[in-house]
Amino acid sequence: MPLKYVPFRQESAKEQSVLQNFSRGFRCMETEKILEILNRGMPLYEMEHQETAGMDGSGNLLIRGTCISACAYLKEKGIQADLVYIDPPFASGADYVKKICIRRSAGDSRDIMKTDGASEAEAPRFFEEKLYGDVWEKEQYLSWMCENLLAIKEVMSETAVIYVHLDYHISHYVKILLDGIFGEENFRNEIVWCYSTQGRPKDRFAPKHDTIFCYGKSRAAYFNEEGARIPYTEEYIRSHFQSRDEQGRACRKRFDGGKWRTYYPDEGMIDNDYWLIPYENSRARTRADYVTQKPEALLEKIIKASSERGMVVADFFGGSGVAAAAAAKLGRRFIHCDISVNSIQAARDRLRADGAFFDVLNVLDGVRIYRNPVQTLEKIKKAIPGLKRARRTKRQNESQAAGGSEKPAEQFWNGVISERPAGRVPVHLPDLRNGREQLMDQAFLDYLVNQAVPALDGSVKKAVVCYADRIDKDKVRKFIEDNKKSAVEIELRDLKEVLDGMEEKDRVKFHTEKLADPDEEKNEKRYCVVIEKFVSGQIQEKITAFNRKKERAKAKRGRSFTPIAISKEGLELIEFLSVDCSASSGKWRSAAEVRIDRQGCAVRDGVAAGGVWDGKIYSEELPLRLKIRNICGDETIWML
Questions:
Q1: E strand spans, 287-387
Q2: Neighbours of 385 (CB within 10 A)
Q3: Among 347, 318, 363, 316, which Cα is nearest to 73's?
Q4: What is the pLDDT of residues 450-465, one digit of tens each?
Q5: CA separation (Å) from 499 to 1, 42, 369, 467, 585?
């Protein structure tokens, strides 16, 4: 349950009325939901302090949680952002995946390094896991974006600026939302980011740009003129700076802003609103193998133009952590927020390698997100015996044939199970991307009893509603009984109980050694943790499924297939490990860490060690805890 609700400003309820400008069927219903949420406030949850990197009190934060829950925490703590950049889902209809690399075993890697090459069979293999599904109904997406933007505005300083990064799929709709929330008078720029990537259509111009809308919270929005300048080209200087000032310096004199002004070549110029910035090469050091990663040069340009040293830069859909990394390098403080564990890990590793100081916080907002919302939902579906996708009704098929869309009440039910004597039982699963659906609150209950249940077919006797978190359990049941408008029995299921015991923990065999007479001049360490064996049942299950799929596909083509095999030690399933020498419980402080790259080589405390990882991690002091992250991103901590 939330600790409390953090109120919105009074004028927020008026700002959201922009949703009524749309005319797609049931948008007024979405507007009513937002009004209820705005009247209630942002849910504030307990915060778990997971790790501190570097100095205490840096003010830099990595927050695992939804945008709204993070904003509730920041507002409660009185923390404000001076610059916000967000790169939210684009409503593109695509599923985004992460490639999981199965490295060669240590012995194979050493043999390959000796022969200076690898055959196709010896090369690393990959399977894919979903990061998130960018599949939304426009109405739901815009409602979700409206809530997020209103929450973000709550934690922006009066001179703050927000940049909203989108593309052609939804940008024109969100522009109207931004006008309503931040005010048309506070619109600053529509920036077009141009790039060139592989693949070009044959029937139209290649879509090679994104749109970034820039708004100030007020007319006093900060703009760093010096930071926004770019150097003149040599050609421009030769053709335009042909005058001389009193000291004989080359200059350009022009009548500008009602008076004569003098410009000099070394001052540079404020850039145009279209930027040609290439994507970073896949081999670049700053690439985090994160599918939606944006180039650091793009974020540097934004940060320089709309902030100065010491200001706070926030990204509430942080992805790989590019905004936080760029902010740290430019002397700004940063707040990185994302609902995905993989995002927090990517940003944490990147910032740690750059030597940044920060705290990692986890919002305890109901069910524990397993890596990311998409994978959590897949686990939930497996945990409910007999769950099948809901069949479309005759009414739904007729509506679609006529060009209509399903109503939210019909979309509310994700699947069905069969029970005796109830028969066909519809099931609702919360959309874990959406903070509104994670919490069974008054707005959710109103919708459940007044819209979702009455929309069910008359033959339905029972429905199952799963939830991640709720208000007081007794109040929930009493409200349902007092207000439901049909005889349908409503069974409530807590997702924490549904998922309980499903997650198989990784296992490790290790021992700690005290090294004899370390050479301090060579910075040799005093202790060593040796990983003897690592087992991950979940990864082995995925590898088995991958092998079967590939074997069937190759067999159809009459080709042989060499299956992926894990060594008896299983060290190739480890991506990262760290030891804590400061405490046996509480927040983590990394005293030493090792990251293993795709070739199986070790990077120790940010420095490439050379050669294949030997299964060891060294520390100066006696290690008390060991943390291991497998190649899929699951982290487990063991006491030493």
A1: 312-315, 333-338, 358-363
A2: 7
A3: 363
A4: 888 988 888 899 999 9
A5: 18, 26, 11, 12, 25
DSSP 566-587: --SS-GGGEEEEEEE-S-SSSS
3-state DSSP assignment of residue 284: coil
Handedness of CA 181, 186, 188, 189 (dihedral sign): positive
**Four-residue CA torsion sign, 143, 146, 150, 156:** positive
CA 458 from centroid of its chain's CA atoms: 41
pTM for the structure as a whole? 0.86
What is the DSSP annotation of 512-536?
EEEPSS--GGGT--SEEEEEEEEE-
Beta bridge partners of 5: 43
Q: What whole-number distance in Å separates Cα of residue 480 and Cα of residue 490? A: 8
CA distance 375 to 381: 10
Within 13 A of 391's CA, how many CA atoms are on the CB side? 7
Q: Which two tokens stand for residue 503?
A: 């997650």
Backbone angles phi, psi at 384, to 5 degrees: -105, 105
Cβ–Cβ under 8 Å, residues 178 and 66? no
Q: Which residue type, as a one-letter code, is found at position 157?
A: S
The per-residue pLDDT for range 158-203, each reduced to its tens digit, is 999 999 999 998 899 999 999 989 999 999 999 999 998 878 888 9
